[in-house]
Structure formats: C-alpha cells, structure tokens
Amino acid sequence: MTHEERANELLRQDYHCSQALFGAFAGDLGLDIKTALKLSTCFGVGMRQGDVCGCVTAGLMILGVAFGFDDPQERELEVFGNKKTEEFISLFKEAMGGSYLCKDILHTDVSNPQGMAKMRQEGLKFKICPNALAASIRILERMLQEYQDNMQDLDMVVLPEDDAMKSALRRVNKLTRFRRNVLALLSHCEGKIAFLQFDIRSFKVINDIYGEMIGDEILDFVTEGLKKLCGEQQYFVNLRSDVFMIVTPYEEEEELTVFVSCIRETLGDFKHVKLQYTFGIYIVDDRNMELRQMEDRAAMARKAAKENIMSDTAFYQEQFKEMLYTRRFIEDSMKSGITQRHFQMYLQPKYSISQHTIVGAEALVRWIHPVKGMIYPGEFIPVLEENGFIRNVDYYIWEEACRFIKRCEDEGITECPISVNVSRYHLVEGEFIQVLNGMIDRIGIEKQHLELEITETVNNQQISEMSGQLKDGGFMLLMDDFGSGYSSLSILLETPFDVIKIDKKFMENMLVSKKGRLILEQVVAMAKKLDLGLLAEGVETREQVELLQEIGCDMVQGFYYAKPMPAEEFYELLKEDRKLNAV
Ligand code: C2E
Ligand code: MG
Ligand code: MG
Q: Ligand 3 centroid vs 501 CA: distance in angstroms?
C-alpha cells in the first residue's frame, strides 16, 4: 500500500488528517500503527481551532522523528531542522494555493459549531482533506528520500564549497556515526575506555595570520593524521572547528599518555606552521552515564589543561564539574545581564602620590547578579572572550564611561580621564574603533578624556597594528599589566603606548627582593627615557608607596588608596577631592 492509500484508508475510518498522515508514515518511523494514532491525536489541536492544518503539524513531526533531531546542544542540527521546517511549510503552502491554515483550506472554520456542521453537511473532509494529505505525502516522500540519499553518499561526493547545508549534514552524519560506534564500544568492550578531546592552540590566531584556507588545510591534515594513528576500535570525530574527540579502549593508563605524545609529535608541523595541542582525558568510570556527559567531561579536562602552564594534558577531575556549571550559568544569563543592567561600571581612582589628588580612574566591570550577588571579571571575562559576548559588555561599559565623562565635563570638574579595558577580542576585529568614535561623537565628550587600556596577547603584531590606528585616531593608550607577560619589552618597542601600567606582581616582588626593586628602578628609568607615562597598579601598602616615590613613580592605583567603587560613589569622592585641592 502506498502512503497515500494508507492515509485515505485512515481518513475513511474517521481519523482526522494529522492522524491519517502520521499513521501512513508509522512504518517508516519504526512505530506501530496504534502508537502512531495515539501520538498523533494531540497534533490536531491547531486544526480543531481553525488554525494550522493538521497535515503541517503531523508532517513536521514525521520529519523530526525521521531526522532524529534529539540533541538540543547541537547548533547545526537545530539550524538544519529549522531549514527543513521552513522548506516543508513553504512547499505545502505552495501546493495549497498559499495557505497552511485549516480554515482557509476548508473555506470554513471548524473551531465553531456552525463551521463544523458545514464541513459535515458538505462532506468537505472527503473532498478537500485528501488533497492536503496527497500534497503533504508528496513533499515528505521527496524530503525523506533526499535525506536518505545524502546520508548515503555524503562520504563519497566532494561537496561544493558553498553548500553549507550539505557540509553541515555531513558533519551531523559523521557525528551520529561516531556516537553510534562509541555506544557499541561502551556496551561490548570489557576493558577500560577513555575519551580524549583535544584542540589546536591559538587556532583562531593561526586562521587570522595564515588565512582560513590554511586553517582548513590544517584541519584536514589533522583528520588524515588521525585516520593513520587510530587503530581498530579507536573512533574519532572532528566535533567542531579545531576540536577533535577520540574514544579509545586501553589497558594501562600509560598507553594514553603515549598516544597523546604520538599525536603531539606526528601532527606537530604542518608546512611551516608549528602546531601545539591541548588534551583533556576522561576515563570512563560509569558506563551508564549519558554519552553527552562523558563528552562534556573530556571537554572540561581540555579546558582545564588550557589553564595549566606546566602540562598540555589534563585528566578529568570531579571539581571540573563546578567549572562547567559556572560556564553554563554565565552563558545562560549573560544576555539578561545586559538587558536588565546587571553589569555595572565600577571606578577605581588613580592618584598622584606627590599631589595627593585623583588624576583619573579605571572603569572595571562588575556583574551584580540578583541571586548570586557580585561576580568579578576574573570569573566571567574568560568565558565571554571565548564566546565573543565580551563585545557587548565592553561596549556597554565604554558607553557608561563616556556618559560619566560627559557628566564631569558638564559639571566643570577638572580633568579626570577615565580609562576603559579593551579586550584582546576586539584587536582581531577592529570594528571597535568605529564604535568608539561613534560613541564619543554621539555623547559629545573630549576624546582625550577617554583612555584605552590594552594587554599584550599571543599576537602582539596585531596589537601593534591596531594601536597604530588608534594612536593616529587620537586615542591615549595605556599598556596594561606590564611585566606580567613574556614579551612586554618587545611590544613596547613596536607599539605607540603613552603610559605603562606596572603589573601588581612587580609591587609584590619589589618588597621581597633586592632584584625586584632593581628591575622596577630600571623600568622607571626606561619609561622616563622613552618619554612614557608610568602608573603602578596594585599598590596596597604605605611601604610600597614610599618606595615608588623614592624611585620616581608618581601615579598609583591600588587598594591602599581606594578599591573600585560604584560610579556614583566615585563621583562624590571626586567632587570632594577637587574641593579640597581647590583650597
Ligand atoms: P586590570 O585591568 O589589570 O584591572 C586591575 C585589577 O586589579 C582590577 O581587578 C582591580 O580591582 C584590581 N586591583 C586594583 N587595586 C588592587 C590592589 O591593590 N590589590 C589587588 N590585589 N588588586 C587590585 P578586577 O576588577 O577584578 O578586574 C580584573 C581584570 O578583568 C582587569 O584587570 C581587566 O583585565 C579585566 N576587566 C575588568 N573590567 C573589564 C571590562 O570592562 N572589560 C574588559 N575587557 N576587561 C575588564
Ligand atoms: Mg586595566
Ligand atoms: Mg592591570
């Protein structure tokens, strides 16, 4: 029996259209007809209210079940599913003369008794519904066949570059196959099993420097390498971008570290590009756990390895779960953090030791969460830098800073420049320069009252280029955290900074060792020779202040003077300070 014959048979048995359609495809979906009819009784709600035709709700259910979109965390699946939904609806509308509403198709509204009576009297269900069913069946048969074909020859055909849909499908297919293999391994293999996830260090930077073509070639190179390295029962997949996952049986833990070394060495060089990796390993201890959770644990270990300077590999530990929860929490609430103004600008004063006066302030973001309370930037900025949301937070804080400056200018408060932090994220994009200029013009402040703090990154070349543009655009540039990285001196030579902010680590060292003090003296001397302004961060004690004064560093910022505070509080402090100094 064809789908259409089956559907019409059900219609004759007085089932409504969504039941007839879903029932006709029951066999294709691996459902028995009884279950299919029971399930589909509830899809007809829209239709009974004179709204969406039951063929549409049932059609979409059929596609959903057939494609198996059961993973809400898989963005590509979601995109694919949405596209297919749109495709179905649009083809259905086209076939039904532009509508997908029950009342338009039947020319009567079955949500009221009169409409229902009319439908019965005129036998509309048997005149019109078969057309809607036939149209849906034609569309579904074609879409399901297409999906089948794609699944089968995805590995054989070379897909055109621009066919994003097909390549998404290919990845989905690979992932599904990988997960199926892993599930089989977990249920059959009696020995130990580990999940190993790794990524390429600074892959984004590699893409930026060498271009995306080389980036793609590197990913192919890794995939090919893994094909050779992985033996029987070792499964791997490219999860997304530069993130790979391998699942492997093993006997001794040492085998895992040897395997990691093997990847590190075999895949360490692509043409002239040096590749470094970060590995996370989860040793399966509970086979009843969901696959997704096991994958998450390997991912957590990989992320932890990123923060480890001593080793590029980390094994999963229970406490990583906490990190994941925090990350999820941040990602779930960051948007409302902006819309509901939970992100706030705090200001920390900068002082001149000799003049006993406030000479500026740094804007520092605080997240005042209604339930969690105050969250400090160290907790959320790394996550926001990874997912790009830092853009929104920075723009928000910069705008607040500009408004604060405007208020000071309007009130005639003598010069108090406010510095804002510019995340390394912006330096890759460059869009922020225009945004900053737009803000300054719109709010109407003097450009020199807004200063920019920049920290060195893995790619100082980029900082130097971007800083050149900023400098030409008339911005005042502060080098943040000087001395905390590895190449502070070289970046200083290449980049037109106006002020260097000495990192708080220097403050600590200066007190404990002679060497520390000597280095600091040299930094101060160098800054003077280079005609650079100098500010010491993290000043906490009277002793540090005296030492800084002795060696000639006058500008300071630190808890000794004041902690970061809400803008309003700083405004009052500033007014007080100006009053005192005017006397
Ligand atoms: P930073 O720019 O170097 O800011 C100075 C940090 O040192 C601030 O931490 C400040 O509260 C802290 N600090 C100031 N004086 C002392 C002191 O005497 N002792 C100690 N121990 N610490 C002191 P905070 O506010 O937690 O910010 C941490 C980092 O987060 C900042 O370091 C900056 O890199 C980043 N950040 C803060 N706000 C923003 C923002 O709006 N945008 C971006 N992109 N990054 C931000
Ligand atoms: Mg800063
Ligand atoms: Mg700093």
A: 7
